[in-house]
Specification:
39% helix
């Protein structure tokens, strides 16, 4: 098997692996089980439990208010 054939085979395997990993992963910012597949306007539930990568910092009231108001353009009134 030539070097070019091996490189093509390796590249094809990498592409299949990459697509498989993308299919396994939940959408960005969504915890496992959050979001509906096929929904173009996916909005996750508010709170640290709904986040895929929650912060190590404690969740504050300001964090909660900001998360609950997203994607609204106006900040919550108690900032």
């Amino acid at each position: 098997m030539g070097l070019l054939s091996r490189a093509a085979l390796l590249f094809g395997g990498f592409m299949v692996f990459r697509e498989w990993q993308k299919a396994r992963q939940s959408p960005a910012a969504f915890a496992e089980g959050e979001g509906a597949p096929g929904n173009d306007a996916q909005i996750r539930n508010a709170g640290p439990d709904a986040m895929r990568d929650p912060s190590d910092e404690p969740w504050t009231e300001a964090d909660e208010d900001g998360d609950e108001s997203f994607p609204a353009s106006d900040p919550p009134g108690n900032y």
